[in-house]
Structure formats: structure tokens, C-alpha cells
Amino acid sequence: MNSKTLISVVGPTAIGKTKLAIVLAQHFSTEIVSADSRQFFKEMTIGTAVPDTDELAAAPHHFIQHKSILESYSVGNFEKDALKKLEQLFTEKDIVVMVGGSGLYVDAVAKGLDNFPAVDSNIREDLNVLFNNKGIIALQEKLATLDPEYYNKVDKDNPHRLIRALEVCIGSGKAYSTFLNQEKPKRPFSIITVGIMADREIIYDRINTRVDIMVQNGLLEEAKALLEHQNLNALQTVGYRELFQFFSGDWTLEFAISEIKKNTRRFAKRQLTWFKRNKDTHWVNYDDDSKEIIEAIEDKLKA
Q1: Domain boundary at 162, 179, 196, which?
Q2: Of 164, 179, 194, which residue sits at a domain end?
Q3: Among 108, 136, 149, 265, which residue has the fewest nearby CB atoms (within 10 Å)?
Q4: Domain co-membership, 62 together with 165
Q5: Annotated binding site
Q6: Angle at 7 between CA 158 and CA 15, to 5 degrees
Q7: Are residues 213 and 241 in the same domain?
Q8: Which residues make up each annotated binding site for substrate?
């Protein structure tokens, strides 16, 4: 086993990942690398559930609101930046904590990405316009034509995944699926993955409550301030997309909020599906005693 260890905390949204990550960072006297792609952007605070001031002060965090929505920042950019930061942290720490619900970004650090060709940024902009004007079905139909193999296994409700696959197809002239499952380099650190879960009813209840709190805390005002940028990739996400429909007059506020809850619940289901693919994950319940979780991690560190 490598002498350096990354403890990766994963799980569905609103399950308590930030809380556990802070407990672990404090126990192991270390720092936290965020792998939540929605929390990278400084203009998006309420709708992405960015850790609050007290949480950020409780342990050093990295990759929280370090970019603007006006900047292009891909999972490949994050992989390089995160690995560089981990290299720095591991010069002083034997253990670092990573936390996030963005499965692709977690895997980018833990396993590495498949190598895709560079593509013209205008292609993504055109696809975002297509999505905003004609909806997700237009993206699905286009991908079914250009790469039926990937279409049959992709999360068809996730516009980010559809747009990413399409821009590679269009930019390279080859199917997105042909670039997948390439051999990846091994990481110079060990990984212990801790997954947090709960019964579905509890997860959904926590999500509904969180959305209500976001609305009370000013989500509408935050989204309205970003309305002029609604076509940007960073804003093609739950919590903002639905409110843009309200601001355009297509939906009532009540319906928009109900859609945020519904789409967040769907997102949580997809997160669990993604994270459960990793058979090495040590799963804990959302209300397990943190001391027991720490003991289990320390046992793995000794193994």
C-alpha cells in the first residue's frame, strides 16, 4: 500500500458529506479537496449548497468557488488541478480528504480520465443553444444518430453528459464511445472510499427540506441575477434551469420549485447508481456515529 492515502467521501446530495468530511479532516489534521463540480463557481452559492462560513473555517477547503461561470473549466482541468494540489498536500500530510457528489469528477482524481481530443468550444456553445431552444430530446436524438452505443448506456436525463458526448462526436468525427475504457495511469496514493447512504424516503425528505431552505435563503434572487448568463454550461443544472423557466413565464413558481425537488431526487438516484459501481466502497448510514466510521477507516489504514 502507498504511504499516502486519499479518503474519498461520496454519496447522494443532501446526505451529509460535508459534515463527515470536516469531521475526518479534523481527526486526521488534514485538508479537504472538493470534487463537487457545482460548487466551483463563485456566482453560485445558495443553489449549489456551498459549505457555509463556519464549515469552511472548520477545515481548509480547496476548489470551492475558485472559478467564475464565465470561465471554461472542464473535468480534465479539474483532474490536473486536483492532482497538483494533492501532490502539494501530500508533501506535508499522509492523509487528505476528498468530498463530492459529482461521480465523474471523483473518478477523474481517483482513476483518471479517458483521453479525448480537444474540440472547438463553439461546438459546446451551439449544443447549449440547441438544448435551450429545443430541449433535451433534441440532444438525445442527435446522440442516438452519432453514437448509438453510448446512447444506449448514457444517463439520458443528464444534459451535461449528452452535450459532452456530442461535442466529441462532432469535433472529432468519431463516436464518443471509441475513446472510452482506455488504460489509465496508476495514482501515487491509496484510496479509501466512504459512501454515505440512507433509505430512499429519508434521502428524498432531506432533499425536499434543503430546497425549501434554499428558497427561503434567496435562491430566486441568486438565479435572477444569473438570468442573462442562462446559456452558459455552468448554469445547465438543477435549481437554476427550473427557475429560468419561471422567469420566462413558462412555469409558475410553485411548479418550478416542485420540479427542482423532483429533478434533485432524480439526480440523487443517479448519484447512488454511479457510486455503487465501486465495489470497494465502505458504505455507512447517514446517522452512524462518526467515531465508528473513523475506527473503520483506521482499520483500513492499518491493513
Answers
A1: 179
A2: 179
A3: 149
A4: no
A5: 11-18
A6: 50
A7: yes
A8: 13-18
Gap between the Cα atoms of 236 and 129, Å rounded:
11
23-36: b (≥16 Cβ within 10 Å) or e: bbbebbebbbbbbb
Structural domains in the chain (count): 2
Bridge partners (DSSP) of residue 262 are: none
On whether both 223 and 155 belong to a single domain, the answer is no
Asked whether the CA dihedral 73, 79, 80, 84 is positive or negative, the reply is positive
Q: How many CB atoms lie within 10 A of CB 157?
A: 14
Binding residues for ATP: 11-18
Nearest 5°: the CA angle 195, 87, 301 is: 45
Q: What is the pLDDT along the chain (303 residues), one digit of tens a residue?
A: 468 999 999 999 999 999 999 999 999 999 999 999 999 999 999 999 999 999 999 999 999 999 999 998 989 899 999 999 999 999 999 999 999 999 999 999 999 987 888 888 899 899 999 998 999 999 999 999 999 999 998 988 888 889 999 999 999 999 999 988 777 778 999 999 999 999 999 999 999 999 999 999 999 999 999 999 999 989 999 999 999 999 999 999 999 999 999 999 999 999 999 999 999 999 999 999 999 999 999 999 998
* H-helix or E-strand spanning residue 295: helix 290-302
Q: Which domain holds residue 235?
A: 5-113+184-302
Q: For position 54, which CATH number holds?
A: 3.40.50.300
Q: Give the three-state DSSP class for 248.
A: coil
Nearest to 86 by CA among 110, 104, 68: 110
